[in-house]
Specification:
Length: about 220
Amino acid sequence: MGDLSRVRRRLEEATAKRQGQVLPTENENWGFYGTIDSIRRERDPDGKGMSVDDAWRAAFGTIMKLFPGIPSKGIREFMDSKDGRHFADLLTFHLDQHPLDARKLEKAVRGAFGSAQGNYYKKALATLAGVPEPEAAHGTTAALVGQMKAVNDAWETVRAQETKKNWKESEAAMRALEKAAEALVTGVRAWVSSSGRTPTYPGRDAQGNAIRMTVPK
């Protein structure tokens, strides 16, 4: 069976090179493919909806539309990686509870990349694809504001899912929070390095007075 899978992937890849179509996964048990298959089976235990290969193609095709400058091999590298697995988890926040279909999945992929947490995955996609990040992606005031918002949004998502006792979604949100926090730390260090100053943001003290709060190094 494994040999047949490899032959199928090679044939699909050869077709993709000729026609500009999506590439098949090289990580069927993990990464985006395995995770979206688990989500698909959970929502459609009778298997009457779309197949996991259809789900892969729908998501891959949407990413190609969103990032036309990223080569297909880079997209596959991202989707087959650990970040691809976490990105599939993130899609659950942008999907309803019904069986998957191509339209819903495309909308979810667009929504996930458009969210605050999606900024991390855009960078991961660009890095794995070997595409340089846009200038001023790190170390600017605007970048820090976005990274702080991403941390806050992710934390609110964790709290909301824990309140609803959605433990699987809460775990995925916690991973997104960790990624957002890592991005903020990187951004703060870049800001300090480039400006020589410690960044601050508006807040209030215990008495409710407006103050400037310092982002710790």
